[in-house]
Amino acid sequence: MTAVTTQTMRVRPETATKPAERVATRASKKHLGLKVGVIAGLTLGAVFAGLPVVWMLSTSLKANGEVFEIPPRLITESFSFDAYAKILGDPLQMRFFLNSYIVALSVTALTLFVAILAAFAFSRFSFRGKEAVNVVIVSVQAVPPITLVIPYFGLMVGLGLYNTYPGLILTHMVFTLPYAIIMLTAYFNTLPRELDESVKVDGGSGWTALWRVLVPISVPGLIAVGVYTFMISWNEYLFALTLTRTDDMRTVPIGIQLLMGQHSYEWNQMMAMSILGSIPVLVLFLLFQRRFIGGLTAGAVKS
Amino acid sequence: MGQPDLRTRDSSVGAPAADAAPPLLPGRGRRPVSKRLAPFGYLSPTLILILVLMVIPILMVISYSFQDNVIVERNPVFSGLANYANVLSDPDFLVAIKNTLIFITVSTAAHLVLGLTFAILLNTDVVGGVTKAVFRIIYILPWLFTIAVVAVIWRLMLDPYGVVNYILTSVHAVQKGVDWFGDPSTALWAVTFVNIWSGYPFFMISLLAGLQGISTDMYEAASVDGANAVQKFFGITIPQLRPVLISMAVLDLIWTSQQFALIWMTTGGGPLNATEMLSTYTYKQAFSSYEFATASASAVIVLLITLILAVFYVRQQRVR
Amino acid sequence: MARGSGKFLKQLLGVATAAALISTAACGGSGSGESSDSSGPVTLEFAQWWAPELPAGAFDQKIAEFEQQNPNIKVKLLSAPYASTKQQLVSGSASRTLPDVVGLDGAWVNDFAKQGALADLTSIMADAKYDPKELVSQVKVDSKTYMIPVVNFVYPLFVNKDLLTRAGVQSVPTDRSEFMEAAKKTTALGGNVTGWALPLDTAVPNGVQNDVLSWLWASGGSMLTPDGKPNMTSPEVQSTVDYVKSLNDAGVVAPGSLTMKEQDKVEKFTNGQVAMVIDSLAHVNLVKKNNPKLNFTIAPIPAQDGYTGKRGLPYASWGIGIADSSEHKAEAFKLVQFLMSQKTNGELATLANGFPGNNTAEPDLSESDPLFKTAFDMYKQSSPANQFVGLPKSEDLMRSFDENLQLALTNKQSVADALNKTQQSWSSII
What we know:
By secondary structure, chain A is mainly α. In chain A, about 75% of the residues lie in helices and about 0% in strands. Chain A has one domain (about 85-300): MetI-like (MetI-like fold). Chain A has helices at about 1-60, 80-90, 90-125, 130-140, 145-160, 165-190, 195-200, 205-215, 220-235, 240-245, 250-260, 265-295, 300. In chain A, helix 1 packs antiparallel against helix 12 and helix 7 (about 195-200) crosses helix 8. The longest helix of chain A has about 60 residues, at about 1-60. Chain B is mostly helical. Chain B contains twelve helices and two strands; from the N terminus they run αββααααααααααα. Chain B has a two-stranded antiparallel sheet. In chain B, a hairpin with an 8-residue loop joins strand 1 (about 65-70) and strand 2 (about 75-80). The two termini of chain B are about 20 Å apart. By secondary structure, chain C is of the alpha/beta class. In chain C, the strands form two sheets. In chain C, strands 1, 2, 3, 4, 5, 10, 11 and 12 form an eight-stranded mixed beta sheet that branches. A four-stranded mixed beta sheet of chain C has the order 7-8-6-9. In chain C, helix 8 crosses helix 9 (about 235-250) and helix 15 runs antiparallel to helix 16 (about 415-425). Chains in contact: A-B, A-C, B-C. The interface between A and C is large, with 54 and 58 residues.
C-alpha cells in the first residue's frame, strides 16, 4: 500500500504543478507585458508633458543670445543662475510675487466659501428659477473677456475698486465661481442625504449640516477645486493688467510680460520668472495631492 | 474631485433635493417662508457678485451691439441690427467660426482622450505609489504656466530652426524643418496641439479622482462574469465617468472658445486667416478698428451660441 | 476621518480667510491716484514702456532730476508691457482714467486724438509760451499737435560682413540688384543661412512698414498722393512689391515669414542665420551683447537702381502726449519740456541708442559704437520716412496690406490684385 501511495504521490505533484506553472508563467508574462506597456506609456507621456518645461529650464540657464542658436543645445557654456538671481534680487519682481500670493490666496478662500454655499443650495434644495440661475452661471463664462474689458473697467472705476486688491480679488472670483459651483454641486450630489438628515434629527439646521458634516467629508473635492482656483487666479493676465495701474499692485504674469520688450525679449529672465512662478502651485499640488487623490475613495461615499 | 451621481442605482442619492421642502401644515407662518428663502440665502453672495460684476457688464456689451459710435466716440447712435448684419456678412467672421469650431472640438476631444489615458495610466496597480506620484507631478506641469509663456516657449520650440524640427530631422521623420506656425496648412493644427498640451491636466486630474471613486466591487463582479479589460472599460468605467465627462466637455468647449492669448502670440490669426478665431476677430474689431459695436455684436453671437450649449447642459444635469 | 479632515479644513480655511482679511484691510493697497489741491505738490503719472528698454535705473534718474528742478511736482512712473500698451490706452481713455502723460507711438495718434483722449499740445505750448522750433517734428492731426517724438529710432540695413565675405560678395549692396545678388549668394552658402528676413506677422503688422514699404521710401517713393489719399497702385509701389516678391520667389527669405515677428528677425540676424535685415538702430548694442563675435555693419537701405535722390530712412519714435482728462496739464507739459530739453534729450537719446527729438541736441557718440556715428551721419543726410505716422487706423491699414501681400507672396493672387484690393480697403479708411 505504501508503495502504491508513494507512487501516486510522486505522480500527482508532477502533473499537478504543470498546469499551475503554466498558468502562473502565463499570468506573470502578461503582467510583465502590461507593466512594460504601462511604463512605456508613462514615459512617452512624460516626454510629451515635460519637454517644453525642460526647454524652459534650459532657456532660463542660458545667455539670451544662445536661445535661437542652431543646433539647439540643452546646456551651454554660459550656464548660470544669473537670471534667477536677477529676479529674486529685484524688489519690484518680488512685489509682483507678493501681490500674486495675496490675490490668489484670497480668491481661493473666498471662492471656496461662496461656492460651498451655492453648491449647497443647488444640491439640497429645489426652488423656482433654479435652472435659470444655473444657466446664467454657466453662460457668463461665454462672453469674450476682451469685449468685457472696457465696460468692466468703467464699472470698477465707478465702484472705486480700481487699482485695489479687492477689485482684483472680486474679479477673479467671478471667473472662478462658475467652475467651482458646478464641480462642488456635482460633488455634493454624491453625498447621501442621510448625512443631512441625521443632523436635522438631532435638531441642527441646514447650516450646521453643511459645515459640520458635508464640508469635512468634501475636503478632497474642495482641495481639487481650490488648487484649480488658485491657479486660474495666479496665471490671469488681462484683467490683472487692466485693473491695476501702479507697480505696487501688479502681479506675476504682468511681470513676465514686462520682460517682453518692444525690441527683444529677456528670454532667460522670462523663463526664470515663469519657473519661479510655477513653484507655488506645484508645492500646493504636492502638499495636497495625497488628500484628494488617495483619500477620495468611497470612504466618504460608502459611509 | 466632484463626480456627480456615481451611485445612481442608489435612490437615496438620486435627484438633488427633490424632497427638500417637507409637507407643512397651513397656518405655520414663518417656517415655510424661511424654508423657501433659505436656498436664496445661500445663493445670495453668488448672485450679488455675478449680477453686479458680470451681468451688468454683459448687458452693457449687449447694448453696445445695438448702437454705433460706442466708447471711442461720444455720441452713440442706435443702429438696430446693423452691426449684426455687418458681422454675419463679414467673410472673416465666417472663417473665424469655422476655425473656432474645429479648434474647440478637436481640443476638447483630445483633452478627454489624453486626460482619460493618463488618468488610467496613473491609476494602475502595475507600478508603485512613488512612481505614480512622480509621473503625476510631471503630467500636471503644462497646467502651471501662464498662457503667454506657453505661447512663447512653443513658438521657440516650433521655430523652423527650433528644437522640434531639429529632433524630427535628426530621426528622419521629416526631411526639412516644417514651418509649423507659418504654413497655412499646419498652423491651425500647431495651435490646436499647443492648446491640447496646455489644457489636458485639467481633465486628467478630474478623471483621476473620478476613477478612484468607482468602487472596485463593480470590476470584480464583471471579472466574475468573464468580462475582459475592454468590456470593463466601456461597460463600467465610461458609464460611471459619464457625468464628469460631460461636465468637463461642456466647460472645456466654452473655455477653449475664449482662448485668445495663445493664438495672438503664436500666429496672430494668420497666416492667411488659417488660425483666425472668434476671439482674435473680436479683438481686432475692438482694438484695431476701434469698432466696439461690431466687436460687441460678435461677442453677443458667441454668447447666444454658448447659451444653447449651457441650456442643454443644465437640462441634462436635471435628467440625472 | 471626517473629524481629522474637519480640523485640517478649519485650519486651512482659517489661514486663507486671514489672508483675505489682511489683504482687504491692507487694501489701502490702492495705488496712488492723482493727488491733492493746488497748494500741495502735484503728482503726475507717466505711463510708458521705455524704462525697461533703457539701462537699469537710468530713466528713474532722469525723473529724479526733473523732480529736483521742479520741487512742486512728483512723477510716478507707470510701466506697461509694450504689447498691451495700445489696448490699455484705449481702455484708459474710454473710462477717462488715463495717466497725465503717456508714451505714444506715432501710428496711434490719429485715432487717440479723434477719440478725444489726447490734449491739444499746440494750445498748451502756446499757454506755456514754448517755442517749438527745437522740435525735430510734431505729429499733428487737423493741424493740432498731439504727440512730440522724444527719441527717434532709425531703421537702416544691418549687414553681416562675415557672411558676405564668405559668399564672395565684395561690398555692401547699394541698390536693389546688388542686394538681390548678395542675398542669393549668401543663401547659397547653405546650412540654414538665408539672405534676408521678412517678418509679416499680422498681430503686429509693422513688418510691412519696416521691411516692405521701407524699400519704397528709400527710393523717394510715396504710398500716398500729395493730398494724403492712398496711392498703392502707383508704379513705384508696384515695383517695390514686385521686388519683394522676387526676393521671396528666389528663396532668399528666411522660412516662417508669414508669422515671423520683429523680435524673431533680430534674433536670427544675431545668430548669423540671416545675412541682411532692416532693423532698428537701437539694436546695435543688443546684437553686440548677445553675439560679440558677430562682425556686422549698417548701411542705407538700397534704393532702386539708378536712383540718386535723397534717400528715405524709415524710423519709429518714442513719442509723448498729454491726456485730455489730465487735471494737471501745465505741470505735465513741464515734464514734456524737460524731456525735450537739449541736455536731457541728448542724454536720453544716447541711453536709448536713438536720435534726439530735439534738433539742437547731439547724442554723445564718444563712448558708443562707431556704428552710431555712421548712422548719425546717415540720419543727417536722409529724410525721415514713415508715412503711417498720423494716419487713422494705421494698424488696420498695415494689416490689410499685409494680408493681401501674403496672398501675393503665396501666389494666391497677383501683385496687381493685391495692390488693388489694398487700395480699395485703404480708400474706405483714408
